[in-house]
Amino acid sequence: MKNSFFKLVSLGSLLVVFAACEKDEVKVTSDITNTPTLAAASSLPANGVLTSANAARPGIIYSWTPLSFNTSATTIIPVTYSLEVAKSGSNFANSTTVDLGTNTTRDTLTVGEINSALIRAGLTPEVVGQAEVRLRAAYANNMSIVMSTNALSISATPYSRELYTFGALGALSSGSAFVRETTPRKYDGYIYVPAAPNNTFKFSNTSSTSGTVTGVASLAPPTTSSTDVVTVNGVMGAAGSGNDITLPGGRVYRIELDLNTGVNTFKATSVVWGIVGSATTNDGAGWSASKQMTYNVTTKKWEGTFDLPGTGTNNEYKFRANNDWAINFGDSPSSAPDGVLDYSGDNIKLVSPGTGYKVSLDLNDAGNYKYSVSR
């Protein structure tokens, strides 16, 4: 397959790093019979523009000649391989790695995996950039040798799965609250909006000042329900444009964006989380009223201490917002919960009844929401 993106770049001599070996270790450095070389065949778009809609598609097939040793046919020396990715011209400073396994000779990276590596390497989303990729081979037992091969170059425009909030509510940084793409061009996440005048913000597609900043084209007045739930709807501006977003402060909001062409909607819904279920009362009545949790602005978690007396078949619980089922979390599948919350997921089983359970929700890592129930 013709490779439109990769160009062999001479690095001069192969880099070899020797580590000290104990006397009783196998010294393999003198037994190496070849040096690995890296090749790539690209299935990326001809214009190099990566999109989340193609994240699961094959992007680049990497293949390499394995590191070999002058040993007997029955001796297998484990060698681990990884790709090292860095901005072009950086001499692989601040590089990131992609694991390729042990004693492998080929791997196919998806568009999403390539995109993640380019973002971690420091390329700016939505801007064409160049990176270099090289193979690293390491003798796995005692790490007596690490080898870096020829480098290949890539020119691509990565996309961002995160949109970071900044403005009066806080400066742009790696610690900024963000929403994350959950399906192509749709974003979800939770942010705390302080009281006025620190209740305005915009979005940036990177956590540094190099990103594209976007606000709203229009924003409807807030509406407040009889249960004190604030909802604000709006229309997002085109990338790189738009006005500040102002929300009633002192609240946590679920932010939902749909940036698909012709949609471009913004929605903010204030949330107060609670735990609900038969485990909270030891009978079915526990499903009709949530035990409210409190948002801790220091830990940035929802927290509460509760008695959970549920036993037998009355040992299940979930989390829901605003004492309502419109927004709720479970943990699927119930047969093998992984500690990551799922919207409208399965009921969670209480391990044992007890008093003084400390319950917390961590909704800072959009799409990777966590919970803890312990005592």
Task: Tell me about this structure.
This protein has 375 residues and is mainly β. The protein contains one helix and 30 strands. It folds into three domains: 8-156, Immunoglobulin-like, CATH 2.60.40.10; 162-271, Immunoglobulin-like, CATH 2.60.40; 273-374. The strands form five sheets. Strands 10, 11, 12, 13, 14, 15, 16, 17, 18, 19 and 20 form an eleven-stranded antiparallel β-sheet that branches. Strands 1, 2, 5, 6, 8 and 9 form a six-stranded antiparallel β-sheet that branches. Strands 21, 22, 25, 26, 27 and 28 form a six-stranded antiparallel β-sheet that branches. Strand 25 (316-321) and strand 26 form a beta hairpin. It is globular, with a radius of gyration of 26 Å.
Distance between the termini: 58 Å
| CATH-assigned fold name of the largest domain | Immunoglobulin-like
Query: Based on DSSP secondary structure assignment, what is the total number of beta strands?
Result: 30
Q: Report the CATH C-level class of the largest domain.
A: Mainly Beta
Q: Could you list the spans in which at least 5 consecutive residues all have pLDDT below 50?
A: 1-30
* Structural class by secondary-structure content: mainly beta
| CATH architecture assignment name of the largest domain | Sandwich
Number of domains: 3
The gross shape turns out to be globular
| CA gyration radius, whole angstroms | 26 Å
